């Protein structure tokens, strides 16, 4: 049996993967691998919008400064400048593709404001921007005959010298990946000239997250096992306002609600953000999330309230139709009732280390989007810079590939073996694995959440190490399934987050430890983990 080949293998079908597929399809065949349906991604759940400078009273330097301030002094200034300066043209490309961004009566982009921004610069499509961007990009991708999307397929491991017999002397290079067909359980190598990881984040490592079920850190875990450097994984952003409701499933209440005047209140109705920051409800996310966490612990309550009832009913329904409809189904009329909210795991600010062209330390392996650490987010991501990062760095990867002198398959691909499942059997004790998954989420939420300490981190570390050993043993003797792959990846992601947090001897941005004072002075003290 001869392994299948493609020129470009893209793992992930969010905005990064789709935008990149359109770009590189000009240079060869493209295969997109996605675990579920082609539209299921973190992008699809992004409500707020895309931050970019379009207003006459705004400028690039102010967007840069807002990003640096939110990043708690840890952003790479060069990466931030690339993000901000190249962003507007990428948003313009989305308009040309057909994304229906909101416009005012004069036909100009209707720009909103979110936490950490001093100017209105959020381009949005009501409160379902991600969904509209995903739909438009999918339509454009499906019009290309040389792009195929493999739905219900997952990356098992990247192909490197580690899989090649007597390959130790070869350079560290990526040749594609072993891909699992989750419907028939078969695993096969897929060879590629260039492989790009665009798998998004890992919110499922926590009990409460705004991310979909597919957000299990697969790309970061696969890259790490292959030898890629992983950076600043201690910084996991908790969105300050997810819906608190038994049936709400951590539904995100967009930052834009506060951008349009929403006020955080305690159980007695007092607006409390005035006690924490000069920007009050529009302070950066790390500060708002910690403030809510503190109010809940101080008062012994399970949530706080987000109140926008002082705005006209038509305004609320017109600006936030998805939030209004979802809350109403759960018995909350946000035009007349404050919304109960709690922080929930939302965005992974660390990830695979890349340069400004999306290149990793593994030859022929690129990465972009939430799975990476480019330096643009530092210790805390500024609201609505995420989709912007996806677009800018996907475009940069395509440009870098277009300038490559050699886009041929390396000769050693003939030595890549087929998948061998001998000696494995179907799981009979899945309850043990499901228990490990529950325990990982509990440990991370209890000990590695918004507020941490050395004692909590050490306790989490010891138990996670044991879980990883259990998972490794189970994986080695069990037929591979999607659930097992996700558990294996989440156990590794949890371990990397904890190890990274233990290495940072300060409180900075999203990493807040009761053992160390907070530091927001500019720093390039990155936490780098590798095998």
If you had to describe this structure to a student in words, what would you say it looks like?
This protein is α/β, with parallel strands linked by helices and 531 residues long. It folds into three domains: 4-235 and 349-415, 3-Layer(bba) Sandwich (FAD/NAD(P)-binding domain), CATH 3.50.50; 241-343, Succinate dehydrogenase/fumarate reductase flavoprotein, catalytic domain (Flavocytochrome C3, Chain A, domain 1, Alpha-Beta Complex); 430-479 and 481-515, Methane Monooxygenase Hydroxylase, Chain G, domain 1 (Up-down Bundle), CATH 1.20.58. 34% of the residues lie in helices and 16% in strands. The protein is built from 13 helices and 18 strands. The protein has helices at residues 15-24, 60-70, 77-97, 129-142, 218-226, 255-259, 285-299, 313-319, 321-329, 386-402, 430-447, 454-476, 482-503; strands at 4-11, 30-33, 50-51, 111-112, 122-123, 147-150, 153-159, 176-181, 187-197, 230-231, 236-243, 263-265, 304-307, 339-348, 351-353, 365-367, 372-373, 528-529. Strands 1, 2, 6, 7, 8, 9 and 16 form a seven-stranded mixed beta sheet that branches. The longest helix has 23 residues, at 454-476. It is globular, with a radius of gyration of 22 Å. The relative contact order is 0.17.
């Amino acid at each position: 049996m001869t392994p299948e080949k493609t020129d470009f293998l893209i793992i992930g079908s969010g905005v990064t993967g789709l935008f990149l597929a359109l770009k590189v399809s000009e240079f060869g065949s493209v295969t997109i691998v996605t675990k579920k349906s082609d539209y299921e991604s973190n992008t699809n759940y992004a409500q707020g919008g895309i931050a970019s400078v379009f207003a006459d009273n705004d400028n690039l330097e102010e967007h840069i400064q807002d990003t640096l301030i939110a990043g708690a002094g840890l952003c790479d200034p060069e990466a931030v400048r690339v993000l901000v300066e190249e962003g507007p043209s990428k948003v313009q490309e989305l308009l040309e593709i057909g994304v229906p961004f909101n416009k005012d009566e004069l036909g100009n982009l209707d720009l909103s404001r979110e936490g950490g921004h001093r100017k209105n610069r959020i381009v949005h499509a009501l409160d379902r921007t991600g969904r509209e961007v995903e739909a438009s990009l999918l339509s454009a991708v499906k019009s290309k005959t040389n792009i195929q999307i493999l739905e219900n397929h997952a990356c098992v491991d990247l192909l490197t010298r580690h899989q090649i017999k007597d390959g130790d002397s070869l350079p560290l290079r990526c040749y594609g990946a072993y891909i699992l067909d989750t419907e028939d359980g078969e695993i096969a190598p897929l060879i590629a000239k260039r492989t790009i990881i665009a798998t998004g984040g890992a919110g499922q490592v926590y009990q409460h997250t705004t991310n979909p079920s597919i957000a299990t850190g697969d790309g970061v875990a696969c890259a790490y096992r292959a030898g890629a450097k992983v950076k600043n994984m201690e910084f996991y952003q908790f969105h300050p306002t997810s819906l608190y409701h038994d049936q709400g499933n951590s539904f995100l209440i967009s930052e834009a609600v506060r951008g349009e005047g929403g006020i955080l209140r305690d159980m007695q109705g007092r607006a409390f953000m005035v006690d924490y920051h000069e920007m009050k409800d529009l302070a950066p996310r790390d500060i708002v999330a910690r403030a809510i966490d503190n109010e809940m612990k101080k008062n012994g309550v399970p949530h706080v309230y987000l109140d926008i009832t002082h705005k006209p009913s038509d305004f609320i329904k017109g600006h936030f139709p998805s939030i209004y409809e979802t809350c109403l189904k759960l018995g909350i009329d946000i035009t007349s009732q404050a919304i109960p909210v709690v922080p929930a795991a939302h965005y992974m600010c660390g990830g695979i280390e890349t340069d400004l062209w999306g290149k990793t330390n593994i030859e022929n392996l690129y990465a972009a989007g939430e799975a990476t650490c480019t330096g643009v987010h530092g210790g805390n991501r500024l609201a609505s810079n995420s989709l912007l990062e996806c677009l800018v760095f996907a475009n940069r990867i395509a440009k870098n590939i277009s300038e490559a002198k050699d886009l041929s398959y390396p000769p050693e691909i003939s030595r890549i073996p087929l998948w061998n499942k001998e000696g494995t059997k179907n799981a009979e004790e899945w309850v043990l694995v499901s228990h490990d998954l529950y325990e990982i989420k509990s440990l991370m939420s209890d000990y590695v959440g918004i507020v941490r300490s050395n004692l909590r981190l050490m306790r989490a570390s010891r138990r996670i190490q044991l879980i990883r050993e259990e998972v490794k043993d189970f994986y080695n003797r069990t037929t591979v399934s999607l659930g097992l792959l996700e558990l294996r990846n989440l156990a590794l992601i949890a371990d990397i987050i904890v190890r990274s947090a233990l290495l940072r001897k300060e409180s900075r941005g999203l990493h807040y430890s009761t053992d160390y004072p907070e530091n927001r002075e500019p720093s390039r003290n990155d936490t780098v983990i590798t095998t």
